[in-house]
Amino acid sequence: MNIPANLKYASSHEWVKAEGDIAFIGITDYAQNQLGDIIFVDADVEGETFEKREVFGSIEAVKTVAELMMPIGAEVLEVNPKLQDSPDLLNKDPYGEGWLIKVQMTNPDDLDDLMDAVAYQGILD
After folding, report:
1. Are 86 and 94 a contacting pair, CB within 8 Å?
2. Domain 8-108 class?
3. Distances from the Cα of 73 to the Cαs of 5, 27, 123, in angstroms?
4. Where are the domains of the chain?
5. pLDDT, tens only, 44-87
6. What is the model's pTM?
């Protein structure tokens, strides 16, 4: 299981890559593996603001639908446009081309509540 050390992780299996007060959010390798073949992403939320742990969309796989939980308080600046035509990027490259949303953090201290790679691995074992 790929768990990059430079990211922060939520127990709901989203990752956060912070760059100043801007962050990218996606789903973990574990999450995409559990979901199976992803066929649709519903996250038309550009310009909206969410609280930590609020649902901001869903992912549809062949056999299930999973909610996407916001791991930090943030305003959505951009939804990954590539996912509309290629939702399978979440399966192929969950930490790269398969990012979900780009956000402006409303409270950067929310990052302190997330896990590092070692702690995240611990909840998977």
Report:
1. no
2. mainly beta
3. 22, 17, 23
4. 8-108
5. 999 999 999 999 999 999 989 999 999 999 999 999 999 999 99
6. 0.96
